[in-house]
Amino acid sequence: LVTDGMHSPAPGTPYAQLDQEGVATELDRVVSKIREQGWTMRIVRVPFNGTSAASGQPGSGQPGSGQPGSEQSGALAQSTAPGEAASSAPGSGDYLSNVADAANTSITVFDPENGSKTIDDTLDLPRVSFPADLGVRGYSFILPMVITNRSSRTLPVELTEILLGDGSDILRENELTELAPGASATIKAKVLVPATIPEGSAQLSLEPRFADGLRVRPALSTITIELKRSALAAFWRNSALLALFLTILAIACAALLIVALYVRRIHRRAEEPIVDALIDSAAAEDDAATVAARSQHRDTAAVLSAAVSGEHRGADLNAASLESRRESTLAASRLANAGYGASTHEEARAASTLNEWKQPASSRRALPVLSSRQEAVVNTTREPVHYEPRIVKPGATRLVLRVTGQNPNIGKRNIHPMQAGTRKSVGGSRSDFCVFLLPVPRNVAYLYYDGSNATLVPAKPELFPDYDGPVTDCLGQDVRMLTPKGKPLTLRFERYVPPVENLNKLLHCIESPGLSLRLSDPEDAEASKAQSAP
């Protein structure tokens, strides 16, 4: 209510006949209706300057400036200039204090020279303030805003927009806070200035807006800022630099991929020099043993030759004693050849196989015969196989996987060096020992090397139905497995011997001569000896 506070109705108006008590009663009634509507009333007394606010003429008898009363609301007040004839109404006078008491509020006197202070003291609008100079900033930055609650109630505040002079909204996301009576808070608004504003110093006019139509003072604020685009923003805005960056990034990713694959390959081959050194050392020891065995073989042959020639000088040898000497000589020769040939596992296995086939057919070990078309049902309820690795003796070797029916001419894909205590995976896909004859899952088993022999441990026991646990000492023996579809495969792990080494052994085999005399014909032996004598 903005008024001079004087009640001076003109004659003939509905309130001209009211006395002072009647005027006070009517004011209480009207103010009660205002309070019932939930309105908050503020009263500002404006000193009368001798001119009617309505008509601009002294003593016009019209309502004063800003009076809220009307005939409909039941509240009518008029202003009387100093020196003007007083109203003849019996209730004329100053009733503004009565209105203030009825509305439970105070009276603020308007100061024409400081009108904004009067508004601030009268209205409980929240007050906002921005830094006057933000300095050098990019186009995206944090704008601090201090907001103060000047009312006597808790005020929820939600910042929804910050408008520039052209109406564009620079607020990136809403900010919410709650202010206690008389409290202040700093809202850190995330803003993005439009790229249409050029770089350099600029003055921005800001109009913050809040949810629920909350009004603040001042409604408009002006800040000074120096805009500067960041190097990254300038980079992304330059299409040529962006294309160059993407090209370099693609090349770098490809280089990293190549390096990773190379490092992985080097890692898998890192153990080969060590294994080669160990294997070469063992080969040198075997060569020394081979030389000693050859020397022993020659000495044994010479001794046997002398013994045979001495015994053949006797004329009374019967056929039984000759047969006995022949068997003993062949046995000694067999022992010498066995000692010489046992330097490698392949020769020992060959000797074992030969001795086995020399036995009667009834006592030979029967080997299982598997059909290539045979199919089996895979049992998927097998328990996992547990195995504790061990080292029998330190050492290293090269092992090769051979699969019946699978092409072996694939380079060194299935040839791997192994040290004692290490393991290699067996299966399809990227397994160390690869089975590609038929589709097989990856890592269906693991091969452990203990320095002396190898053990195959099934990781998928259902694919190895013939074995209840680890397949121990599996070097040189056939291991049967099934594919997930039940088709049988035969795996065989062996020590790898390079083809050059086999060829060298074949070429040097003539360096180990047998007996120089035919033991089966003593007379021919005597004749040969007589011919060789000087």
Characterization of the model:
The chain has 534 residues and is α+β, with helices and mostly antiparallel strands. The chain has helices at residues 20-36, 96-103, 115-122, 231-237, 239-269, 272-311, 319-341, 345-358, 499-508, 522-532, and strands spanning 2-3, 6-7, 43-45, 93-94, 107-109, 127-129, 133-137, 140-148, 155-163, 175-179, 184-192, 200-210, 221-227, 396-403, 415-419, 423-427, 433-434, 445-449, 454-458, 478-482, 488-495. It has a 5-stranded mixed beta sheet with strand order 7-13-12-9-10, with no helix packed on it. The chain is rod-shaped. The N and C termini lie far apart (158 Å). Mean pLDDT is 75; it is low at 50-85, 335-348 and 361-376.
Q: What class would the helix/strand composition place it in?
A: alpha+beta
Relative strand content: 15-25%
Spatial arrangement of strands, main beta sheet? 7-13-12-9-10
The description of the largest β-sheet is: 5 strands, mixed
State the helical fraction. 25-40%
Radius of gyration: 57 Å
Number of helices: 10
What is the mean predicted local confidence, pLDDT?
75
Shape descriptor: rod-shaped
Distance between the termini: 158 Å
Structure summary, number of beta strands: 21
